């Protein structure tokens, strides 16, 4: 799927669109995605900062989506677990950058080669425009080769 179309499709998906979450960049090889959450009157809490749920939502599907694109249709890829640590209020536009490197991808392929399940762990930071750390999110993604490819 072309990157621009994929990005557009994700950006008009209602749960993200109406939360103010936007995909700003997708690398052609899907190894880097940049997500932003902008402030709107409808997505702020009583303290005028981002809702914690919105901060989490901006980090939810990306490692899973990246791995699905990179590994292809021979693999099951599911979000398994997430934990968010709120460190400071998120005001204005906040950004999360998701990256995968060749070493991580090779390790996932090696761990699943015989059909075993693998739980891949990732960490992402949410930062504001001043580069202040707002939250960290630990993600666990389940990966396993489909039965006909084992």
UniProtKB/TrEMBL annotation:
Pfam families: DUF4442 (PF14539). InterPro entries: DUF4442, HotDog_dom_sf. It comes from the Bacteria. This is Tetrameric acyl-CoA thioesterase. It comes from Silvimonas terrae.
